[in-house]
Specification:
globular; 0% strand; mainly alpha; 209 residues
Length: 209
């Protein structure tokens, strides 16, 4: 963690200044820590509130529904591989409004898919929530909050682009490209996620430095 401490260098040390192996190590460590922390908190509250059954407060659906090594795309990762703590919030205030906007703009009926609006709406509310969290945690630094917004917005755009490439590839019957390309995109996604946390000072905040 000393590489992330500005006082050790006399100037700010950013994620990009770290050696690439350290960037990979920090990305893996941050991902493992967050998944473990979310799982631990989820399990503790599920056990504590279990006596309330059948009240809805005792209902704790699984956080992770797919093994990490079974994920083959960005869409898979955000749909099944990451935690579901904010799923209801994102559905009501992001996905549904996004679908409504797409239907209004395109004239689609209620029985027609609205994948673009759904994805962009979900990631728009995610960007807002994470930006607000970053803004409050790091003492109201607007630039860091905008970085969180940019990350989650680009994730939504990346999923739409990925789906377009996937359909093109599937039409040409070159199915194996989806797996390799999807996993590379997920790796880049995790790297940018860790980069944003370091830049916003959240890693130092969690470690108590």
């Amino acid at each position: 963690m000393s590489d992330l401490d500005p006082e050790s260098f006399g100037q700010t040390k950013s994620f990009d200044d770290l050696a690439f192996p350290k960037q990979l190590l920090l990305t893996a460590a941050l991902g493992g820590f967050l998944m473990t922390a979310f799982s631990l908190g989820h399990s503790i509250f599920a056990i504590m509130l279990a006596p309330l059954k059948p009240h809805p407060l005792s209902y704790f659906p699984p956080l992770y529904t797919t093994r990490v090594w079974d994920l083959t795309s960005m869409r898979d990762f955000w749909s099944y591989g990451w935690h579901r703590l904010f799923s209801r919030l994102f559905l009501v205030y992001g996905v549904w409004p996004g679908e409504w906007v797409e239907r209004k703009l395109t004239g689609k009926g209620s029985d027609q898919p609205t994948d673009v609006g759904k994805v962009l709406g979900g990631f728009a509310i995610s960007a807002l929530v994470h930006s607000f969290a970053a803004y409050t945690v790091v003492g109201g630094v607007v630039g860091d909050a905008l970085g969180e917004a940019e990350f989650f917005t680009l994730c939504g755009v990346a999923i739409i682009a990925e789906e377009m490439v996937k359909r093109l590839v599937m039409n040409r019957r070159r199915r194996n490209m989806r797996v390799s390309g999807g996993k590379q995109a997920m790796g880049l996604n995790r790297w940018h996620f860790a980069r944003g946390w370091v830049k916003a000072g959240l890693v130092r905040e969690m470690s108590g430095m």
